[in-house]
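ok so i was messing around last nite and threw this chain in just to see what happens. nothing serious, just curious
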Amino acid sequence: MIYVDADACPVKAEAEAVATRHHLKLFMVSNGGIRPSANPLVESVFVADGPDVADMWIADRVGPGDVVITSDIPLAARCVEAGAAVLKPNGEALTVANVGNALATRDLMTDLRAADPFRQGGGKAFSKADRSRFRDALERAVRVALRS
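result:
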């Protein structure tokens, strides 16, 4: 199965296309505000409003052989610990080898932002190359998951 932390995910359509190609169930988990898919393989899960409710729903269900798509590093760490494959929307895999470093970097950046509330800026725009990298990475992750 594929689980998508869908509230701010820019690659929902790509995830649905890959899930459909492989005839896999896909869960789009959000607090609402996304349009349900007519695809019978896609289940829209709307959780209660609140911090980390969608994350908890996903983390409570994933295990080996599942693929999770999220930008949320604490959720990624929980899913990796449960044995799931985890991809960020840019195609970067989060694994046992790198998720600890990603958590530390996230915490450092949170502290830096808190220390300088006037600091402006955000990430770079999501590009076609990012989408392509994601699709390729998801294809690989799904193939590995199907073999296991």
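not much to say yet. Residues 2-147 form a domain with the Rossmann fold fold (CATH 3.40.50).
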